Amino acid sequence: MNKSRILSTVFLLVVFLTIALTALPGSASASWELGIANLPDTATVSQTNQTWEDSEVFRSEVIRLINLERTKNGLNPLEESQTLTYMATIRAQESMNFFSHTRPDGADAFTIFSDYNLAYTAVGENLSSGFSSPAKLVEAWMTSESHQANILSDKFVCVGTGFYVDENKKIYCSQLFYRP
């Protein structure tokens, strides 16, 4: 086994163990919220000095900014979940080919939770494409009623932010909100 394969295997093992440890018994047929307003493709990465090649920095800043918005509105910050981040990264990549809260196979976006055996009482999703910075992205989400509703919902306790850059350097972002 080469080093890359070993690291990939370890990463997947950690993800699956995290899912197994965080999944609680219960019905997966609970409520969910969608950020259904498709955001305009108003900015591209090339319009900024920052290329955001480091997805971890981008994701961390998005989460920091949404937690600032929550704090300003008297809400507790959301806890970042690595499992949700992994799932949101899949959704970000899927949105590159099919920008919708429906998955490329026609299934509902929230089937990703059952794909990873993650039971929930409430979930939500925000999607975006083409924003050049976390600040511009969060600003756009906060001016969209459905996206803002997810960010400021007291139903959610965890969040994961996914990030994908296509061959043209266009950024796709997905955010999954969760309550076990």
Automatic annotation (TrEMBL):
InterPro entries: CAP_dom (IPR014044), CAP_sf (IPR035940). It holds the Pfam family CAP. Residues 64-176 form the SCP domain. CDD domains: CAP_bacterial. SUPFAM superfamilies: PR-1-like. This is Cysteine-rich secretory protein family protein. It comes from Desulfosporosinus hippei DSM 8344.
